[in-house]
UniProtKB/TrEMBL annotation, chain A:
This is AAA+ ATPase domain-containing protein. Residues 14-23 have a biased composition (Polar residues). Residues 63-195 form the AAA+ ATPase domain. Keywords: ATP-binding, DNA replication, Nucleotide-binding.
From TrEMBL, chain B:
One of its GO terms (molecular function) is ATP binding. It is found in: Nucleus. InterPro entries: Checkpoint_prot_Rad17_Rad24, P-loop_NTPase. It comes from Dendroctonus ponderosae (Mountain pine beetle). Signal peptide: none annotated. GO terms for cellular component: nucleus. This is AAA+ ATPase domain-containing protein. GO terms for biological process: DNA damage checkpoint signaling; DNA repair; mitotic DNA replication checkpoint signaling. Keywords: ATP-binding, Cell cycle, DNA damage, Nucleotide-binding, Nucleus.
TrEMBL record, chain C:
This is Replication factor C subunit 3. It comes from the Eukaryota. Belongs to the activator 1 small subunits family. It comes from Dendroctonus ponderosae (Mountain pine beetle). It is found in: Nucleus. The keyword Transport does not apply. Residues 35-192 form the AAA+ ATPase domain. Gene3D superfamilies: 1.10.8.60, 1.20.272.10, P-loop containing nucleotide triphosphate hydrolases. The lineage of its organism: Eukaryota, Metazoa, Ecdysozoa, Arthropoda, Hexapoda. The keyword Nucleus applies.
Length: 378, 469, 360
């Protein structure tokens, strides 16, 4: 819901036309923690040293460049630029910032109209209270990699023309999806995945503030499973706290459910099943049971992959072979409503690889290939 | 004047338009049209006495080759708007493929009901300023307001309908402007307006989608009538009427033989204007046999629609007449040419694919529905099934036209090449079946998954859910 | 007609749920203590997703949500086609199944949510919630287009509208939606849980159910509680008495479409020829047009075929099945891919038979 603040700012439907200030206040009280615990100043931003150094300079008076932040989700891209903007503009913040994310329509038309009109506004170089502030506006384009190529191209010209009064800040996950002319106009900063200890620290602080009861080791699991994504970790923590209610401890199951992690035993059983030569009925039975648990298939494959890589008992060449199947099955199951087929396919092939002698398998494959050719000729 | 003649063919009764359109506009229009079209048909001297298209053009609603239902609908609309005394204009949008008789229908009906019809034409002027953006739009606006006060031009007849067929380029470039124009005229004008859009099957500009999105349609209460392709029976009727008229004045024309007419019918694909063009061509050239054979040698490869006359010639040579079914037959019954040990497909694959490039998905569905009957060996069928399934995957990327063509290529060549054990017998071609969910998920009574319907049937002794044998 | 047991004994309160009790408690906490998030409820068919959702709604809004009415709404698409879709709604929520309208799901989703979100609730006394709930079922059937639209709308209108999404499988749901919802996993009940529920249901009906039969039904339904209850009721109707076993143990009635699929499988293995293929196509058409989802057709067909074929060709058959299953998810002409799979299977099977012959 970190978007509902944004949409309010844009004057879209949503919260801007919500009727009473009373309900707005109530909502404020129940603010998402992600919003509530956003860093207030750039100094609070953890770990992204380069960008923090540059922004500090800008806040103390240097010229602000156009910027491109890229990196995995939840590493603080939005937080950083928002904090910087707050520090730069103070109360004028609302007038000086245009924030667009992929959830708003962002075709060429928007680039032309919204962005152009916004960038053509002139601003003065002082705040209401007399403090100086740069005569600039900032346009933040969140999820810029979701913009169409045409829209990006349209942006190029605008960016150049309005350099006097406007700075752009593009945020994206994959810099490769931004067209070259745009990247060359921006100072690029890479956001690295956060170190787990930082996330843990932050979560602990939040727990203290919000009076959430959680054991150290469970918090550790949460941090681990969220994979360096601060937002995901905080959202998960809040969800867990909401599910558990006041005055009770968050359980490991909560964390697993919220982050849709498949319990270790299912994944381990899966791999064990593949090590023995079993009847097809047995595998079907197992897959059916697994399906009844409704774990998301991509998670199963993901965790199988980890288990496979860490396994000491499977030789490296075999791992490579299984990995190939794993990749394909996992890809094919991404849109599937019947994961059964893909899980079964993978299980049977892994079993084949792990139980049949490689030489025999090679021979069989050749035989099969031969048959196919012969069949083609007849 | 031959210029006038062409106008007739384009817009129906000439008198109307020439009187309505302001002088400057008319002039430019005429220049434009004649300069293009006159050159195409270097005027055949001896036919001057007979104004072909004027004679053949429909004169009364009965002559129109439009589905009676649609005609009724249109007539109803015109009658009601003319009678209503609202000081607000009514809008109607007519859409349909090229040459299905949209314009003629409007014109004939207006004539029959004694209503004036004023048509907007884009000013294509030497005056360069007008061409540029807003000038054109301003003129466009003028058209509406002018028509409000123009009883001087008219015949003192207060019943009047405006027809917009040509949309100014400026508007196409920027639909917002059109919306504001609509806004303007809905308050400032009183005459009913008919907009006319041609359906486009290619993914170029689709006027209807561009200029008449839902909000606009709703906001201004724009009625919508969509015409279909001229049905085969209607087309036949039209051709018969045309040849009857021709037979009535035997001196000036070569008479098209029945075979020629059949060929025209088969190839015009529901486009009655195209059919008339072909007929005219056949009439002036005369010796059909010579004409057909001669054209076989020359390659007439341009797409239909861009250049009507060459397109129609291509169709008229009977060998080349490829309706959908004919094309399917070609693909399902591939002919081979042996060259030593190797073999080649004996047909112009490019042409086949071109022919169906308008609707790749439909054609592929047809192929799927019918291919099995032409296959003699399971192995061949398997490869074909695989290639069809693959090409359907490609067809899902409907926004990329290149990819669609690629899918069509794979499907067509797959079906032709893999059919090694051909079954050559006559088979009826079936249209692809549509699968519709007969059970909607939300209905009265308990909501069950379709897979549990069996038990429901037993318990309630009903047959709400389908039963399998 | 009296209600089916499935509906009659459906739990109405979170506290009345029979299994996943821990989860029920947590859901209660969620409703009481927080700004209610968007939910994504997922789990296999018949595991009780809908029951839980209705319980949550009741917990949120009180008994008012049980006053349901059916109402069709009409939406106009950009191509000016009018699409009608059935909704079930109360004063507090509205339920639709967007996949009913096929490719027009995007328009329906956007329009509906926009309408709901823009109409404020006025005069709702005794109800402190300032939002309505939109319940979308079968979100895994939504087109990608519709899902992206959904994501946009759910951000835009989150102030006065909450979504509860219901899906069988998470895979087709785009990550952007997953990350904006709180996932609620509803696993299928275990065999013993189903058996217990069957027992308690029969008790309420003043019937005696012999434990072996309960067990037998529970095992047969693969975790589908709804089907278990239906079968139990059918059993009662057909055989009258559930307590005593008379003569031979009677078989659990299989749904007719499943029998149909198994017959189709036998048809495929009985003879591999073009004629047979055409017959199979007819049968596939019949299954699909009668509303059996294509992925279930493929799954059941595959299972049936695997039972019949030699273990040497199993890996290959599966490889092909997975390929065509994947292609099937990419488009909506399912029949083509199903047929391609059947043809491929026929070829593999035939070839295997031939190689066996040569071996002798």
């Amino acid at each position: 819901m970190h978007s509902f603040l944004k949409s309010g700012k844009l004057g879209e439907a949503g919260s801007s036309n919500s009727p009473t200030s009373g309900s707005a206040k109530k909502r404020l009280k129940k603010l998402q923690w992600v919003e509530k615990y956003r860093p207030k100043t750039v100094e609070d931003v953890v770990e992204q040293k380069d960008v923090v150094a540059v922004l500090k300079e800008c806040i103390s008076g240097a010229d602000l460049p156009n910027m491109l932040f890229y990196g995995p989700p939840g590493t603080g891209k939005t937080s950083t630029i928002l904090a910087a903007a707050h520090q730069l503009f103070g109360d004028l913040y609302k007038d000086r910032i245009l924030e667009l994310n992929a959830s708003d329509e962002r075709g060429i038309q928007v680039i032309r109209d919204k962005i152009k009109t916004f960038s053509q506004l002139t601003v003065c170089s002082a705040r209401a209270d007399g403090n100086p502030c740069p005569a600039l506006k900032i346009i933040i384009l969140d999820e810029a990699d979701a913009m169409t190529q045409a829209a990006q191209a349209a942006l190029r010209r605008t960016m150049e023309k309005e350099t006097k009064t406007t700075r752009f800040c593009l945020l994206c996950n994959y810099v490769s999806r931004i067209i070259e002319p745009l990247t060359s106009r921006c100072t690029k900063f890479r956001f690295k995945p956060l170190n787990q200890s930082f996330i843990l620290e932050r979560l602990q602080a939040i727990c203290k503030q919000e009076k959430v009861l959680v054991a150290e080791n469970i918090l550790n699991v949460l941090v681990q499973e969220s994979g360096g994504d601060m937002r995901r970790a905080i959202t998960a923590l809040q969800s867990c706290a909401n599910l558990q209610g006041k005055n009770s401890h968050i359980t490991l199951e909560n964390v697993y459910e919220v982050l849709t992690v498949v319990p270790e035993k299912w994944v381990a059983n899966f791999l064990d099943l593949c090590r023995k030569r079993t009847d097809i009925k047995q595998i079907i039975q197992f897959i059916n049971e697994l399906e009844q648990q409704a774990y998301p298939t991509h998670k199963i494959f993901e965790q199988l992959n980890v288990l496979l890589i860490e396994s000491d008992t499977i030789s490296e060449p075999l791992k490579a072979e299984i990995g190939e199947y794993l990749a394909e099955s996992s890809f094919r199951s991404t849109c599937s409503r019947a994961d059964f087929t893909h899980l079964l396919d993978f299980a049977v092939h892994t079993q084949e690889i792990l139980t049949v002698d490689p030489e025999a398998r090679k021979w069989e494959q050749q035989e099969n290939a031969k048959c196919t050719i012969i069949q083609g000729l007849v | 004047m031959s210029a006038k003649k062409w106008k007739v063919f384009d817009f129906g009764p000439a008198a109307y338009i020439t009187e309505e359109v302001p002088i400057s506009k008319r002039k430019t229009k005429d220049e434009n049209v004649t300069s293009v079209k006159r050159y195409k048909f270097s005027s055949p001297g001896k036919h001057k006495s007979f104004d072909f298209f004027k004679k053949l053009a429909p004169h009364s609603p009965e002559d129109l080759m439009v589905h009676p239902k649609k005609l009724q609908e249109l007539e109803g609309w015109i009658k009601t708007v003319v009678q209503s005394n609202k000081m607000k204009p009514e809008f109607l949008l007519i859409s349909g493929p090229t040459g299905c008789g949209k314009t003629s229908a409007v014109q004939i009906l207006c004539k029959a009901l004694n209503i004036e019809l004023a048509e907007w034409t884009n000013p294509i002027d030497m005056d360069y300023d007008v061409m540029k953006g807003s000038g054109q739009v301003a003129k466009f606006m003028d058209f509406f307001s002018e028509s409000k006060y123009c009883s001087l031009f008219g015949k003192g007849n207060s019943k009047k309908i405006l027809l917009i067929k040509d949309f100014p380029n400026a508007i196409i470039r920027c639909p917002e402007e059109f919306f504001s124009v609509l806004e303007h005229i809905s308050t400032n004008s009183v005459h009913p307006v008919i907009f006319m859009c041609t359906d486009s099957t290619t993914n170029e500009i689709n006027l209807q989608r561009l200029l008449f999105p839902d909000e606009i349609m709703m906001k201004h209460c724009i009625a919508h009538i969509s015409f279909n392709l001229c049905a085969a029976t209607l087309l036949k009727k039209g051709m018969k009427r045309a040849s009857d008229i021709l037979n009535a004045c035997p001196e000036s024309f070569h008479h098209p033989t029945q075979t020629t007419i059949d060929a025209i019918l088969a190839s015009s694909m529901g486009d009655i204007r195209c059919a008339m063009n072909q007929l005219y061509l056949a009439c002036i050239i005369g010796d059909q046999n010579k004409f057909v054979t001669k054209l076989k040698e020359g390659k007439a490869g341009s797409k239909r629609g861009k250049n009507v006359s060459t397109g129609s010639i291509k169709h008229m040579a009977r060998d080349e007449a490829l309706g959908l079914f004919h094309g399917l037959g070609r693909v399902l019954n591939p002919k081979r040419k042996n060259e030593g040990i190797a073999w080649k497909l004996d047909c112009d694959l490019q042409k086949l694919v071109d022919e169906f490039s308008i609707q790749p998905a439909k054609f592929t569905s047809f192929l799927f529905e019918n291919y099995l009957k032409y296959f003699g060996a399971l192995g061949d069928a398997q490869k074909t099934a695989d290639i069809l399934s693959f090409s359907l995957g490609l067809l899902e990327n409907w926004e990329n036209h290149e990819l669609l063509l690629m899918a069509l290529w794979t499907a067509v060549s797959g079906v032709m090449i893999f059919n090694e054990h051909k079954v050559s017998k006559w088979n009826q071609i079936k249209a692809p079946r549509k699968i519709e969910r007969r059970i909607k998920s939300i209905e009265e009574g308990p909501r069950l998954h379709p897979t549990d319907g069996f038990y429901y049937n037993i318990l309630t002794k009903s047959s709400k859910y389908p039963v399998f044998k | 007609m009296s209600m089916l047991w499935v509906d009659k004994y459906r739990p109405k309160e979170l506290s009345a749920l029979d299994y996943h009790i821990q989860q029920a408690e947590e859901l209660k906490n969620l409703v009481e203590h927080s700004d209610f998030p968007h939910l994504l409820v997922y789990g296999p068919s018949g595991a009780g997703k809908k029951t839980r959702i209705m319980c949550i709604l009741k917990e949120l809004f009180g008994p008012g949500v049980e006053r349901l009415k059916m109402e069709p709404i009409t939406v106009t698409t950009p191509s000016n086609k009018k699409v009608e879709i059935m909704t079930v709604n109360s004063n507090y929520h509205i339920e639709i199944n967007p996949s009913d309208v096929g490719i027009y799901d995007r328009v329906v989703v956007m329009d509906l949510i926009k309408n709901i979100a823009q109409t404020q609730q006025i005069g709702m006394t005794g109800n402190q919630r300032d939002f309505k709930v939109v319940l979308l079922t079968e979100v895994d059937n939504l087109t990608k287009d519709a899902q992206h639209a959904l994501r946009r709308t759910m951000e835009k209108y989150s102030a006065n509208c909450r979504l509860i999404l219901c899906a069988t499988s998470l895979s087709p749901v785009i990550p952007a939606i997953q990350s904006r919802c709180l996932p609620i996993r509803v696993a299928a009940p275990s065999v013993s849980e189903i058996a217990t529920i069957l027992q308690s249901t029969c008790e309420k009906e003043d019937l005696e159910l012999r434990p072996e039969l309960a067990e037998q039904i529970a095992t047969a339904v693969n975790g589908n509680l709804r089907r278990a209850l239906l079968i139990c009721e059918v059993y009662k109707m057909e055989h009258g008495d559930l307590s005593e076993q008379v003569g031979e143990p009677l078989p659990i009635p299989e749904p007719d479409w499943k029998v149909f699929v198994v017959q189709t499988a036998s048809l495929i293995t009985s003879e591999q020829s073009i004629e047979n293929l055409m017959a199979v196509r007819e049968r596939l058409y019949e299954l699909l047009s009668n509303g059996i989802p294509p992925e279930i057709v493929l799954k059941e067909l595959l299972t049936a075929l695997l039972m019949k074929c030699d273990k040497h060709i199993i890996p290959q058959v599966l490889r092909e099945a997975a390929l065509y299953e994947y292609r099937m998810t990419q488009g909506n002409k399912h029949i083509v891919h199903l047929e391609a799979f059947v043809t491929k299977f026929m070829c593999l099977y035939q070839r295997h038979l031939k190689s066996l012959m040569q071996g002798f």
